[in-house]
Design goal:
Strand content: 5-15%
Oligomer: single chain
Radius of gyration: 21 Å
Length: 245
Amino acid sequence: MKIISKIKIHIFFYLVALIAVLTGLFKEFLILTSIIIVHEIGHISASLYFKWNIDKIIILPFGGLTVFNEKINKPINEELVILLLGPIFQIMYAIIFYNPLILKYHYALLLFNLLPIYPLDGSKLINILFNKLLPFKLSHILTLYLSFLVIIICLTLHLDLLFILILLLLIINVIKELNNHKYIFNKFLLERYFYHFNFKKNKIIKGHFFNKMFRDYKHLFYIENKYHSEKEMISKMFDNKDKLW
């Protein structure tokens, strides 16, 4: 019941539902909606297993979005499993209820959702890969720049009006996330100061370069022939309003 209370239906969903009724495509709309729900159940099931806090579940006519109220520094592998369970549940649904119409919308939704555009699953997967290879700050900004690039490429194609509207909704989300980039990075740092994370890997950073910090790593800062802990350096950064990052 707690999960159900977190479900929010986007107004755009009701609009498309009305159009589907008026155009005689309500059956197709129900099939698409069922695929979206199953997909989100995959994400939700994995998040419940890892005890992630769900903030809200937004249902849109072209997909769903499960929003978490969690720490940025949660394990990357947990985030990856939560991400993958959505498409996996969706594929299982298409196999079990094999039907040409179900397959049509399954493939369409799957391919769309794998586009590397924030906040689609494709962008989350790219961001996870970036975080495996690159510092957190750089990974976040590259994911958003890639989102802009893919949207621009899509807009150059011959698309129908509905898809263009969807892209416009997505670009608004990308812009909001980009505007929050500094806040998100500060949150990433502050979490490491206020909470204890049991990271198994260590990394040494030479200098005051907070922008070189990785997810899933504990860092030591080597400055003037001395080692300093993350907490010590982050405390100095915020206390002194240091902007070296």
